[in-house]
Design brief:
Elements lengths: L27 E4 L1 E2 L19 E2 L2 H20 L15 H14 L19 H7 L8 H13 L4 E5 L8 H14 L5 E6 L1 H7 L2 H10 L1 E9 L3 H6 L6 H13 L3 E6 L9 H15 L3 E4 L9 H8 L7 H14 L4 E4 L11 E3 L3 H12 L3 H20 L4 H7 L3 E2 L2 E2 L6 H12 L5
Parallel strand pairs: 1-4, 4-5, 5-6, 6-7, 7-8, 8-9
Antiparallel strand pairs: 2-3, 9-10, 11-12
Helix pairs in contact: 1-4, 1-5, 2-4, 5-7, 6-9, 9-10, 10-12, 12-13, 14-16
Length: 434
């Protein structure tokens, strides 16, 4: 082993945020809280398997930052990042982490016990088991090395502080964390958090939020989901449309960037139009910096899954969902960026409102003008592309389902009936992560 200025016997893993916005996929992350204190949203599968909410002690978070710094320094000492950071360096991580662990074992230092969180046993629905492969609440040293390496490869300039609602914490606590991260990683130029609009509206003053802005926080990601009070109540979101407006406007007034998520399809078949119109009205009042589309997918062990089973909720069709998005685009009267950055979305529509409204509506209308069969084939190709974009290649079960229709490595769906196409589309959609 090469000589190192870092005490490898003191190296330990740190907690990272498995759930974070798509724009923070390659950010350095630190957990200020664990999981979600609300945990009642009927559509959310994230914390349904035994994860408990807790606020972390300041000393523990500061220790995590120190651990991340130690790992970052050690990787550079071992030649990771010299002359440049490269994805090829991931291949060296197992050897480096094994050497550190071997030295620690020889010195009588053993891995720490980590908090028990999400469980995955044999009785869990296969779809949730697939979903849980995305979680790593107990990362080992190699996981943390790869986390830092990914962050460095992608510029090393962003940091996400989780988990579900950092606005629930006192501003002084969050500000202290941001300052410590900046001291240890001065190249970071953007800090972001998730927040609940109810926290911004009811718990935080503009002065509180401005303190976070001055400390270095740049953006808050809010899950609006809907602007309809009826829909928000039905899915137990715990907020109202007025909370959405008040929380977001207060955040903007403090100087923070406001990024909101809306969920086409959340109103179901019966409230589809109300959901779309009311959401557009709320978005117009807020004028957020970013509107991010995240179409509804219903996961097992959620309130909506139960509602579908007992007949109290009927899913909107793909065409209804697309028409909802069309209403959002047509009726949202605000200067904002519309982004389709979730694998759950059928259409990949992006642009600036209002300047790109006409183009986006034309793209939507192109889909709506297709016949029934054409829509099915479009959906299969779009969902397959999303899967490949998310995972790199199709899974074995998807390949097996598509095999009869492969001709010279290309899909020929002429002999696939509509029912078969629907079954394959469903199979793919069940594996896409929001």
């Amino acid at each position: 082993m090469m000589p190192s200025g870092t005490d490898i016997l003191s190296m330990r893993p740190f907690e990272v945020c498995s759930i974070r916005p798509p724009t923070e996929n390659f950010s350095l992350t630190f957990r200020l809280t664990r999981n979600c204190y609300w945990n009642k949203c009927a559509f959310c599968p994230v914390y349904q398997l035994g994860a408990k909410y807790s606020k972390r002690d300041l000393a523990d978070v500061l220790e995590d930052i120190s651990r991340a710094k130690r790992i970052d320094d050690y990787l550079f000492e071992r030649g990771i990042g010299y002359p440049v950071y490269s994805s090829a360096s991931h291949g060296r991580i197992p050897e480096i982490s094994d050497q550190v662990m071997a030295a620690q074992w020889e010195a009588g230092i053993f891995p720490e016990e980590s908090p028990e969180e999400l469980r995955c046993d044999q009785d869990i629905d296969p779809r949730l088991a697939w979903f849980l492969t995305w979680f790593n609440s107990r990362p080992n040293l190699a996981d943390c090395m790869n986390h830092i390496l990914n962050w460095r490869i992608h510029g090393g300039a962003t940091c996400f502080l989780g988990d579900a609602d950092s606005l629930n914490l006192k501003p002084g606590f969050v500000s202290r964390i941001i300052g410590t991260v900046q001291e240890n990683f001065p190249g970071i130029s953007r800090f972001t958090v998730y927040g609940r609009t109810s926290s911004a509206a009811r718990m935080r003053t503009v002065k509180d939020l401005r303190e976070l802005y001055r400390a270095g926080l740049d953006r808050v990601h809010f899950g609006l989901e809907s602007g309809s009070d009826k829909v928000l109540s039905r899915v137990h979101k715990g907020v109202t449309a007025e909370d959405h407006v008040a929380g977001c406007l207060k955040t903007k007034e403090a100087g923070l960037s406001c990024s909101v998520y809306v969920m086409p399809g959340l109103g179901g078949a019966d409230c589809s139009l109300e959901h779309a119109h009311d959401t557009a009205r709320v978005l117009t009042r807020i004028a957020p910096d970013y509107i991010r589309l995240r179409s509804l997918e219903i996961f097992p062990m959620t309130g909506l899954a139960d509602a579908v089973q007992n007949g109290s909720f009927t899913e909107a069709t793909e065409e209804q969902v697309v028409r909802e998005i069309r209403t959002l685009v047509e009726e949202t009267d605000a200067d904002t960026e519309l982004l389709s950055d979730s694998a759950t979305n059928l259409l990949n529509i992006n642009g600036r409102l209002p300047v790109d409204r006409k183009r986006i509506l034309a793209e939507i209308d192109d889909y709506l003008s297709l016949g029934t069969r054409e829509k099915l084939e479009y959906s299969l190709h779009a969902r397959l592309q999303s899967f490949i974009g998310q995972y790199g290649e199709p899974s074995e079960d998807i390949i097996t389902a598509l095999m009869p229709y492969l001709r010279n490595s290309r899909l020929d769906l002429e002999k696939a009936g509509n029912q078969v196409l629907n079954e394959i589309i469903t199979m793919i959609r069940m594996k896409l992560m929001p």
